[in-house]
User: Which sequence fits this backbone?
């Protein structure tokens, strides 16, 4: 039984999130500004916080910074600002993830689950010699098994090979042609356009919201990469 | 001290002291001047007064001699028996006169000494020397003169004006005449020796010489006193004048310099009048002094009692004139000082004003002359001057030096201009370089360049303000968009969430389920619309940050196909791509360019007729890369191409289908943000979008 703190100055959003999370079997605590969130975090044992950014009294960014001083509880920021700078600032200050408003309830639940799994299953998976990880993605090359937040996913051999190539070089951008040559072991003669389709399928399997990938990123006009340190 | 300076009483006192001292100094000065000759001469007998007195005595004596001769002639007539009654009367009158002369020249009455001897016989005819006294010892200087006496001279010439003719003309002429004339009586020649003793011993004998001697002695004694008096009073007058000048312009209760009516008169006029007055008064003083001097040498003045008072009055008058002159001079100095103190000397000088006005007029005239005229005029003057100098060069080597000096002056002037231009150029460069705050230093710049520099400074100031204003407005716009998007998204979040929650609840009315479906669809569309709206406004206002880098167009199209091919295939649309050999590089922001292609392909999936082909062509050439997307519209395109790019315009007007109508507008804005162009072409049902971007090597 996990306790989730929901913090937003809009009461209707808090209630809606409360309904979804309660129906998923989580216990919830409600707060309507940053100060209340800090108080609730002191008095209760919290496993995850959903925090709005724009709030009166104390905004989500400052509250996150305060919370991070003494806790590593997962924090997911809810932001109406789709500005890149806000996302980067939130992540830098110590938030673990972010969801932009207006959000899809299913995406919220998926992200909550993902963060909780990661938070509670810390150190669960052993780091074997054949284990390659990036964020929630773990690839056991020996067993040919790929897990995301501990959940195994099924991949085709090509998808598996593409993911392995990208995981082995986190942060490095591979163009379609490079991926084709490495995975198919064939020189690319204009036949690399299939790579993009494979990547899309792979993204749909790994990412919670494929339109806004967190790990397997498209670098438009250059290629693809696995986010370094994600 | 300050109080004393502004005290009116002290000022009046100073003026009184000044005038009194000047008067006293004048009197003493005149007296000193009058007695100056006595001091500079060694003896009292060298003065002009003595000369006059001596000559007078001499003439009287000559008169006496002629008188005697005439008497003798008349007596001779009596002896010869030719005398008549008139002769006897004449003899009586002459005898009386002679007695008077004898009395006048008596030793007891005068210090004049004489000795009359016959030049032929050497016998003394008459003298007033004491017995056995020699002339040499008796007087200081012996004066000698020869008198020729002829009988005719007395018959022809009257008795009453003997001195002029008898003494000066008659002897020479008659001697020459008589030498040839054997009939004439040999004239009698007399030698007259005369003089005055050095020492006046007996004060009982009070003749003119005694008075002259006494005046001389008095002058010698009192000159020092006069001089001392003059110097002391003069010093006092100077001190009083200094006080007057020091306190001039200060007034009780006023901190600034107070000017009077005198300072309202043009200084040069005032000065001219005062200097004229001073000069006139000085001449008057000198004139009076001169008159006094000469009058005092007159014999009658010496003994006269009334002359003494006249002399004193004259001296007083001269002193007063002197004092008046000093007063005028002091007034002039005072107003000069006040004007200096009030710093209005130049302003209140007519000449200065006129000259200043003329200089300013000429200066302004030259200054406001157009630069072209200035250059032409300057060049003409320079040429003429150089030519004039060159003509002089033939004659004198010194002109070569002058010529060189003119060249150096010209060089300095041109350097001044060049340096000014250099500064102007540097300033302009700095401003063009983006430092709008920069102000060009216009000090010591040629006038014409300074005008230019000032205008430039004004432009940069105006531009700077405009840029600030623009920045402010941009920030405001960006903030507004962010705030509006937040305010729209927050309620939308609730709507979407609660519609979603409604879907999960049991609905008794079957229609309710249908309604919820509509709500869900429309709220999703609203979400899309909001996002597009924010993006469109961001893109069109240029708030979005653009990071341009080298992007592979082939790769990007590949990725786009990966995203869209399946969706398009689902709509029975076939994609045909034509790419050039090798990778095509462009300078663009990958994310923004992706949005452009994404929007175009999304448009195809929405509006293209099913079962047709979508053409995606990439071409490069002339430094440009062109990407065109062609498709056949499902509905007739009843709007011109330009209107399609406007916001909220879609190919069909019903607006029943999905899409916000912002896609093309966003695509165009984003393309232009990256320095590219976005064009649309409509040919019947053929829809063509062309994106052109600069090629990267």
Assistant:
């Amino acid at each position: 039984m996990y306790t989730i703190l929901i913090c937003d100055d809009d009461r209707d959003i808090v209630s809606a999130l409360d309904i979804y999370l309660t129906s998923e079997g989580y216990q919830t605590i409600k707060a309507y500004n940053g100060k209340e969130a800090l108080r609730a975090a002191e008095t209760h044992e919290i496993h995850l916080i959903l925090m709005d950014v724009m709030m009166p009294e104390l905004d989500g960014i400052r509250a996150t910074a305060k919370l991070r001083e003494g806790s590593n509880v997962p924090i997911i920021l809810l932001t109406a600002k789709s500005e890149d700078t806000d996302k980067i600032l939130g992540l830098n200050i110590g938030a673990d993830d972010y969801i932009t408003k207006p959000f899809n309830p299913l995406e919220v639940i998926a992200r909550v689950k993902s963060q909780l799994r990661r938070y509670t299953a810390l150190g669960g998976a052993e780091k074997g010699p054949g284990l390659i990880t990036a964020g929630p993605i773990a690839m056991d090359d020996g067993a040919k098994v790929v897990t995301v937040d501990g959940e195994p996913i099924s991949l085709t051999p090509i998808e598996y090979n593409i993911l392995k190539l990208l995981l082995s070089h986190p942060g490095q951008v591979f163009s379609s042609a490079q991926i084709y040559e490495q995975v198919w072991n064939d020189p690319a003669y204009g036949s690399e356009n299939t790579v993009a389709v494979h990547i899309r399928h792979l993204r749909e399997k790994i990412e919670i919201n494929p339109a806004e990938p967190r790990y397997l990123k498209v670098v438009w006009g250059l290629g693809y990469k696995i986010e370094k340190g994600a | 001290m300050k109080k004393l300076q502004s005290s009116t009483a002290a000022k009046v006192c100073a003026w009184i002291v000044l005038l009194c001292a000047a008067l006293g100094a004048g009197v003493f000065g005149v007296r000193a001047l009058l007695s100056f000759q006595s001091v500079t001469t060694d003896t009292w007998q060298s003065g002009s007064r003595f000369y006059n007195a001596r000559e007078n005595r001499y003439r009287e004596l000559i008169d006496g001699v002629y008188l005697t001769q005439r008497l003798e002639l008349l007596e001779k007539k009596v002896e010869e028996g030719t005398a008549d009654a008139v002769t006897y009367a004449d003899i009586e009158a002459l005898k009386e006169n002679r007695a008077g002369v004898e009395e006048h020249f008596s030793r007891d009455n005068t210090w004049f000494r004489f000795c009359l001897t016959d030049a032929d016989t050497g016998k003394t005819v008459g003298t007033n020397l004491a017995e056995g006294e020699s002339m040499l010892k008796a007087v200081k200087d012996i004066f000698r003169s020869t008198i020729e006496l002829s009988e005719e001279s007395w018959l022809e010439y009257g008795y009453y004006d003997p001195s002029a003719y008898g003494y000066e003309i008659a002897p020479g002429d008659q001697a020459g005449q008589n030498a040839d004339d054997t009939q004439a009586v040999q004239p009698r020649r007399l030698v007259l020796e005369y003089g005055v003793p050095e020492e006046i011993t007996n004060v009982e004998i009070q003749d003119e010489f005694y008075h002259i001697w006494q005046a001389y002695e008095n002058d010698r004694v009192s000159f020092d006193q006069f001089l001392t008096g003059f110097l002391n009073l003069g010093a006092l007058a100077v001190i009083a004048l200094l006080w007057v000048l020091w306190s001039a312009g200060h007034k009780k209760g006023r901190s600034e310099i107070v000017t009077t009516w005198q300072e309202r008169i043009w200084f040069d006029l005032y000065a001219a009048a005062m200097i004229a007055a001073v000069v006139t008064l000085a001449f008057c003083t000198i004139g009076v002094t001169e008159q006094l001097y000469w009058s005092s040498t007159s014999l009658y003045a010496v003994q006269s009692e009334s002359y003494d008072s006249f002399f004193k009055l004259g001296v007083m008058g001269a002193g007063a004139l002197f004092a008046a002159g000093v007063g005028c001079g002091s007034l002039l100095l005072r107003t000069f000082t006040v004007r200096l103190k009030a710093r209005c000397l130049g302003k209140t000088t007519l000449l200065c004003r006129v000259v200043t006005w003329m200089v300013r007029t000429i200066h302004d005239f030259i200054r406001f002359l157009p630069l072209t005229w200035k250059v032409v005029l300057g060049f003409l003057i320079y040429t003429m001057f150089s030519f004039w100098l060159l003509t002089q060069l033939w004659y004198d080597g010194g002109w070569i030096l002058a010529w060189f000096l003119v060249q150096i002056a010209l060089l300095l002037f041109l350097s001044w201009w060049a340096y000014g231009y250099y500064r102007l150029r540097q300033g302009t460069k700095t401003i063009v370089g983006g430092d709008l705050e920069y102000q060009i230093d216009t000090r010591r710049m040629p006038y014409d360049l300074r005008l230019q520099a000032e205008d430039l400074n004004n432009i940069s100031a105006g531009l700077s303000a405009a840029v600030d204003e623009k920045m402010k407005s941009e920030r405001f716009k960006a903030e507004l968009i962010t705030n509006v998007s937040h305010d729209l998204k927050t309620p939308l979040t609730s709507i979407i969430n609660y519609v979603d929650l409604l879907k999960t609840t049991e609905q008794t009315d079957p229609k309710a389920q249908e309604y919820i479906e509509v709500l869900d669809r429309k709220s999703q569309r609203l979400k899309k619309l909001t996002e597009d709206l924010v993006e469109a406004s961001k893109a069109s206002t240029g708030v979005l940050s653009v990071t341009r880098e080298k992007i592979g167009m082939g790769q990007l199209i590949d990725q786009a196909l990966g995203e869209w091919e399946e969706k398009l295939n689902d709509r029975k649309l076939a994609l045909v791509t034509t790419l050039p050999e090798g990778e095509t590089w462009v300078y663009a922001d990958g994310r923004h360019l992706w949005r452009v292609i994404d929007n175009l392909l999304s448009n195809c999936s929405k509006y293209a007729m099913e079962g047709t082909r979508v053409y995606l062509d990439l071409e490069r050439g002339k430094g440009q890369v062109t990407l065109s997307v062609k498709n056949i519209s499902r509905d007739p395109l009843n709007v011109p191409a330009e209107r399609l790019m406007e916001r909220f315009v879609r190919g069909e007007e019903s607006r029943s289908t999905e899409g916000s109508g912002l896609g093309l507008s966003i695509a165009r804005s984003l393309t232009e943000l990256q320095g590219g162009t976005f064009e649309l072409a409509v040919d019947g049902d053929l829809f063509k979008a062309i994106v052109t971007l600069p090629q990267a090597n």
The two ends of chain B are 90 Å apart (CA to CA). Chain B has 21 helices and eleven strands. The CA atoms of residues 608 and 633 of chain B lie 5 Å apart.
